[in-house]
Amino acid sequence: MSNNVEMPTIELDYPIIRGTGDKQKEIKEFTLRRPMGGDLRGQSLIDISMAKVDALAVVLPRISNPVIHEHEVKNMDAADLMDVGLTIAGFFTKAKHQLQAETETAAIPTA
User: Is the CB of residue 9 less than 8 Å from the CB of residue 31?
Assistant: First the structure.
C-alpha cells in the first residue's frame, strides 16, 4: 500500500487553535496512521465506524500527528469531524475489499 493510504492527511476547513497569545498556533492539517488493536481499546468498533464523537475523541489522540487532544476533537467543526470519522472508518475495510469496490466503481459508465 502507498504511504498516502496508510497516513492520510486531514485538511481542516476550520483550523484548531492551540495555545494563547504569542504562543498561539493554528493546526490546519494533520495525518492519521492506521490504528492498531491497542489504539482502539475501550471503544466499540461500531461507535468508531459510526463516527460517534465520544469514540473519536478517545481514538483520534492515539493516531493523529500532531496529536489532536480530546477537548480539541470535541470543539472541532462538524464537517471536519465527519471527514475524520469517515477516514478512520475507512481503515476498517480490508485492502482486498477496497480494491474490489474501486474496480467496480471504475467499471460503472458515466453519463
Answer: yes
